[in-house]
Amino acid sequence: MNNSALARFITSLGSLNNYGSTVLQTKKALDLKSTSPLNQDNDDAAIFSDALKGIKAIKKNGFNTDGIISINAQFNTPSKEQPSMPGHLRNAYYNEDDRIAIVVGTGALETYIPPEVISRKDIDKIVDEFYRSRRRENDAWLVFAKLSKLQPFQDGNKRTALIAANAAINTFKKEDYLVLPFNDLDRAEFTINLMRFYVAKSDKEETAAFKKMLSVLPSKKDRLFLLKQPVENEDRKLTKTIKLKPQFRDTRK
Q1: Residues 35-46: what's their mean pLDDT?
Q2: Rounded to two decimals, what is the model's pTM?
Q3: Fewest CB atoms within 10 A around its CB: which of 55, 64, 69, 156?
Q4: What's the pLDDT at 41?
Q5: CA dihedral 24, 54, 92, 117 (to 10 degrees)
Q6: Domains (ranges, CATH) in the chain?
């Protein structure tokens, strides 16, 4: 197994939930089979461990509805990033924790509210559409987008969707993982376009948003090149004291 490529995938996956450990730290954790090299002041250990468990689960169950549910069912390492009922399909009529809304703008009122009740048939539809497609990388990314928009689980939906999209085209065997944009600005634009996909009211609007998502993803050539690169020391030492002025602020505090 190429731990460098897997480390890049897990780091990309973790970026969906503010994973703070570097690719080098993540590779060391894979090499040592221990979370000790990871940042210990956040939820990185849970994201790392559950990503590996989720991958193992869908490799066992295959790309189908049971396999997708089995990914989320592995998100049970204690962390605030986890669903309170892993693998449980939301039903807001019976469980208050299943009532969710996704903030898509700068204000609390700018939200996307997914369906309140999710059934296996909703996931079946996404899986069936993929198997009727040409099963290309773009079709796998559509699995990611549609599962993310559906929000079938209490939490960890985008992580579940990215693992499922990779399983759809069997990247876990070939180690040519689908990953998010490499740099922060492209990744932010990708997320914005995913939010556009969420709030789309028609197939036409969804298609337009999806095309914008694809436009900022790394090309297959660039992605495969990076995945094959050895992980180098990523420590950055500043020679002067400088003041950092972030333009993207964490509004969750």
Answers
A1: 90
A2: 0.91
A3: 64
A4: 74
A5: 120
A6: 3-228 (1.10.3290.10)
